[in-house]
Amino acid sequence: MKRLTKKSDLQKMTAKYDRQGQVELDSHKLIHQSSKTNIMRLPLLHRLPFQKYYESIENLINADMVVLELGAGCGNHTAAAVETKAKVYALDVSQTSLEVCKRNLIDVRIVLANMEDIPMEKSSIDVILSCGSLSYGDPTKVLNQINRILKPGGSLIILDSLNHNLVYRINRWIHYLKGNTTRSTLKHMPTQETIELFSDQFDEVEIKYFGTYLWMELILSRILGNSMAHDLFNRIEKFFPSKRNAFKFLLVCRNFVP
Fold it and tell me: Fewer C-beta within 10 Å: the chain N or C terminus?
């Protein structure tokens, strides 16, 4: 199998999300985005990480801030930032996805760019957000951009999937073999080392892990029902958290020190 170059990987990824965005545009369907409705659209067993991500946004961002979301796509998770009344920029490589984002969230400002080369001024952003998008860029290059544009004392909020969970890695490889993702995306999936790298220049760092017992929840939901099984494993995960087999992590970093 011929190995793709980074450039062709980017083109492939852009084309994929352009196609998905075009489907949304062709539907002419206006989706009134809000953090509450976005949570309710998710399957019950996947809601908690996104709920905590939205809560972190609400707690850290105010109307006087400038916010940049990396890999915003169609804006599926942008509403929480817009609801704070901050000045929100949504960055993505897909023009059509950004058009969908702007159509559904008129107050957002769109930025067509690669997160490895962000066209923003030095020390111009108060808070940087990323939800499921870190694997779309080389972590060192993305971090260099974050460190350049983030204001001293600024914050970083990341929700993403971890690469060390075996089930998740197998699933990613299946999607790669089907042509649904790129080789560079597999290479850049976040790891524990990624978390440490991105949090290194902040005074305050909070990390939460999710989905350690997800496979058990899937099994017991057939016996107890989705709601009861979900509540049970939320309690278990709260008292017995584990990063070793977690599917997702929430990284909240405060007080950036250049």
Answer: N
CA–CA separation, 42 vs 213, rounded Å? 18
Angle, CA of 213, 217 and 220, to the nearest 5°:
135
Domain residue spans of the chain: 6-256
**CB contact at 8 A, 90 and 13:** no
Three-state DSSP at 96 gives helix
Confidence of residue 30 (pLDDT cuts 50, 70, 90): low
Q: What is the mean pLDDT of residues 82-100?
A: 96
Strand pairing class (87-92; 109-112): parallel
All residues at 6 or more sequence positions from 226 whose CB lies less than 8 Å from its CB, including other chains: 44, 45
Q: Which fold has domain 6-256?
A: Rossmann fold (3.40.50)
Neighbours of 196 (CB within 10 A): 12
Tell me, what's the pLDDT at 6? Answer: 47
**What residue type is assigned to position 116 of the chain?**
E
The radius of gyration of the chain from alpha carbons, rounded to an integer in Å, stands at: 18
Of all residues in the chain, what percent carry a pLDDT higher than 70? 90
Residue 71 CA to residue 173 CA, distance in Å, equals 21
The CA distance from 190 to 247, in Å, is 11
